[in-house]
């Protein structure tokens, strides 16, 4: 009798062992693994084993094959049978979780939502699964851009975590909600929420890595909030704390001690992903502040780390990090006079977006914006207009919209014959009245654009008023590129007005700042002015030196211009519709690294 009871367990364990051996072989032998698991059904197993085997088959087929219909069939059976078996939560909720993932992959979101809602409803006595399923449904709503529903679910999760005594997971829910509120620009709700999160994080006593990871999440939100607002100087203390925090995490050992509360069994991001993220926000800060060599250094470090991670990890967030880093370094290249390299990296972003439709959907507007900026740098103004117009059509993000409009206005000013369109744009980004976003940096840039227009129209006093406003704002937040641009334009105005001394007082610091950034266009402009200024003041030696500098900058920019325009990727400037063109292949150029070109 005893042997009859043990027999099913022995055959089951044997088949399971074989299946696992084949699954973990190198390379995995998935077909043999599936055969072993399917053999279990030949023995007419009890419901518990039947449901678990359907789950295992569904999971293996989902993760390792393209046979999604068969995977779905097994997962649906696992979900159905496990609901009839008491005390079988892990199989039941894992089946629901994977099945809803599969539905989303098949674009059957309307099947995934009720499944997750049902699982959430019946999992309230199982804290780990209840929290995990709430996160999953909130993520699904976020991907659908339904941030209100996602925020509601995260609020429910935070309250549930508080009730079951998990302050750690409560903080994760609240920080996730804070992230979505920042995306929605609901700043009045963000501030009290982040204050509460800060208190919870500081008071929580638990696993040091979990505590520090909460601090990283909290500080990343604070830093991005400041950077979104264009407050480059104000963010420095938070950014420093964040960098110290990631250094602390990298010295801590991952203790595999499981938390006593099952609701605490969550990680926000792996340690290695957090390191890349901190590099990324550091690059964002350096770009906005105009420390372009620093931005390049951190981009190189981050991309090197990403390449290593992508060999072992196919997480989509890594490709997102890579695209954002490339977007920033492309901006950097355009400013420092490396257009050919920037163009090859734009092509690299196109290739990454070809591999992921979701990545393209999220970054199409940025990609066309980058192409628009490249077009300005090679003086293809019609193409620049077409790229910016396409980007405006594709974005719903207010800051990006304002940034694009500002750059499109600069195109119309340069063309000189688009008065109606220009005034229509300027009305929508009036820095003195109802400016569309709270960004300090973008508002300062809008004053600069007004100053540039007034300069071209010969209204010099009005131009000076706008540019002094830009200078005041850019000095307040260390916006070095805007400061350099404003100084050189003011210097040009004083030169035209015949006030050479005042002009010199503007152009010399503009040149120093542009060299420090380094900003090739401002250096070219400043050296031309210095040549004329010194000639007018009778400083022959200084005039000769400035003329030599101007010639050197001109030569560098001309050579780079010719190199960029001769690349096959230059044809991307004509692409304004649909997915990125496949036929344009990037050259074997550099594979490393949005700040304003104004």
UniProtKB/TrEMBL annotation:
Transmembrane segments: none annotated. Keywords: Cell cycle, Cell division, Chromosome partition, Mitosis, Nucleus. It is found in: Nucleus, Nucleoplasm. SUPFAM superfamilies: TPR-like. GO terms for biological process: cell division; chromosome segregation; mitotic sister chromatid cohesion. InterPro entries: MAU2 (IPR019440), TPR-like_helical_dom_sf (IPR011990). GO terms for cellular component: nucleoplasm. Its main location: nucleus. The keyword Oxidoreductase does not apply. PANTHER family: MAU2 CHROMATID COHESION FACTOR HOMOLOG. Belongs to the SCC4/mau-2 family. This is MAU2 chromatid cohesion factor homolog. It comes from Takifugu bimaculatus.
